[in-house]
Amino acid sequence: MNKEYSIEKSPLYRLRNKKKLAILLGLPNNYFKKVHQYKYSEFYEDKPNGGMRRINNPEEKLKKII
User: Fold this and answer.
1) What 3 state SS string does 16-49 have?
2) What is d(CA 53, CA 21) in angstroms, rounded to the nearest whole number?
3) Do the domain assignments include residue 58?
4) What domain range includes position 21?
5) What is the pLDDT of residue 32?
């Protein structure tokens, strides 16, 4: 889904309501009323120019959020 429009027409522009955000993300209306603890797996990857990059890979539940 590739939509292009001005920032003023974005559904996130001036969004001030957590319930509406949850609906936009395809989550239950009361999603942000609960405390969620997600787990991440951490690993390191070589950078092309040398050094290491830390990667925090989220668990599947978090990846499913649009």
Assistant:
1) CCHHHHHHHCCCCCCHHHCCCCCCEEEEEEECCC
2) 31
3) yes
4) 7-63
5) 81
